[in-house]
Structure formats: structure tokens, C-alpha cells
Amino acid sequence: MATTRTFSIIKPDATRRNLTGAVTAMLEEAGLRVVASKRIRMTREQAEGFYAVHKERPFFNDLVAFMTSGPVVVQVLEGENAVARNREVMGATNPDAADEGTIRKTYAESIEANSVHGSDSDENAKIEIDFFFKPEEIVG
Ligand code: UDP
């Protein structure tokens, strides 16, 4: 299997509870390596742009408000089959449906405040990485 990259966000519900390290440890234990990381406060424009695919969904406005409600940590993760590996350790979108031992089962507060984002395909990973990082900010 090839070493690939994915994009992750530690969301405001997790940074608010001081879980940046705990979440990152679970990512690392899953075999992922943090090759870029920065703590930012997303602007409304960034959040709307990042989640543009969900623009017509009923939860869009609440989601943008949530994602701009506090700091987030954006990360590039590297590992074998990184997209799938990250989705596995994240768990299902709704924490009630997430498997035991996943980040969302362990830490998420709700379907919205679900602690982490992870790209859902290699193609989207590249788009999302480019949205937040310059090439020189990624050190593999
Ligand atoms: N979300 C929400 N309500 C929903 C579905 C999703 O607030 O009914 C939020 C949630 O924070 C989720 C994000 O929108 O992580 C993106 O949704 P998606 O379906 O892409 O899930 P993910 O890929 O994050 O598991």
C-alpha cells in the first residue's frame, strides 16, 4: 500500500475541552504521522468555502457558526492508505453510530460537534490540504 496524505481538522468542541493532544495521540496510534499542523480561527469565508459542498443542506448555517466558534487545529496526516485509515479512527459522523475506540465515540458531543474532520477521498484530501497549507508548511 502506498504512503498517502489526508487532511484533518480538530474541531472547536475538542480544542475548547483541551483535547488537541488526546485526539492527535489517537491519530498517531492509528499509524498516521502529523506532517503539518497549525492552530487557527477559521473565518466565516473559510468555513463557507470549505463546506461549500453542503451549502444547500439544512445544517449548513449552524455548521459554519460552529466551525468559527473557536480555534481549530488543521493538520496534514501521512500514512499508508491515509484517507481510509483516518476515516476508520474518526468513526461515524454521528457519534451514537460510531464504533467503540474511535475518536468520535470517545470524544464527540453531537452529530455537529463531532471533534474531527477527515477528507473522504484522495482527490478531496489534495483540495483540502491546498485550501489551508502552502507546500513549504508541510514537512514530511
Ligand atoms: N453535520 C451536521 N449535521 C448533520 C450532518 C453533518 O452538523 O446532519 C456536520 C458534522 O460536523 C459533519 C459535517 O457536517 O462532520 C460534514 O458532514 P459529512 O456528512 O461530510 O460528515 P463527515 O465526513 O464529517 O463524517
UniProtKB/TrEMBL annotation:
What cellular component GO annotations does this protein have? cytoplasm
Segments spanning the bilayer are none
Q: Which residues form the active site?
A: 117 (pros-phosphohistidine intermediate)
Listed under subunit, the entry gives: Homotetramer.
Is ATP-binding one of the keywords UniProt gives this record?
A: yes
Q: Which gene encodes it?
A: ndk
Q: Which NCBIfam families match?
A: PRK00668.1
Q: What does this protein do?
A: Major role in the synthesis of nucleoside triphosphates other than ATP. The ATP gamma phosphate is transferred to the NDP beta phosphate via a ping-pong mechanism, using a phosphorylated active-site intermediate.
Subcellular localization is given as: Cytoplasm
| InterPro entries in the record | NDK-like_dom, NDK-like_dom_sf, Nucleoside_diP_kinase
Residues of the Nucleoside diphosphate kinase-like domain = 3-140
Q: At the top level of its lineage, which domain of life is listed?
A: Bacteria
Query: Which GO terms of the molecular function aspect are on file?
Result: ATP binding; metal ion binding; nucleoside diphosphate kinase activity
Q: Does the keyword Metal-binding apply?
A: yes
Q: Which family does it belong to?
A: Belongs to the NDK family.
Question: Example GO biological process term?
Answer: GTP biosynthetic process
Q: Which classification does the entry list for the species?
A: Bacteria, Pseudomonadati, Pseudomonadota, Alphaproteobacteria, Sphingomonadales
Main subcellular location of this protein, as a coarse class:
cytoplasm
Chain positions recorded as ATP binding sites: 11, 59, 87, 93, 104, 114
Q: Which UniProt keywords apply?
A: ATP-binding, Cytoplasm, Kinase, Magnesium, Metal-binding, Nucleotide metabolism, Nucleotide-binding, Phosphoprotein, Transferase
SMART domains per record: NDK
Q: What is this protein called?
A: Nucleoside diphosphate kinase
Catalyses which reaction? Answer: a 2'-deoxyribonucleoside 5'-diphosphate + ATP = a 2'-deoxyribonucleoside 5'-triphosphate + ADP; a ribonucleoside 5'-diphosphate + ATP = a ribonucleoside 5'-triphosphate + ADP
Top-level class of the enzyme under EC nomenclature: transferase
Name the cofactor(s) required for activity, per the record.
Mg(2+)
Name the Enzyme Commission number(s) assigned to this protein.
Answer: 2.7.4.6
Organism source for this protein? Answer: Allosphingosinicella ginsenosidimutans
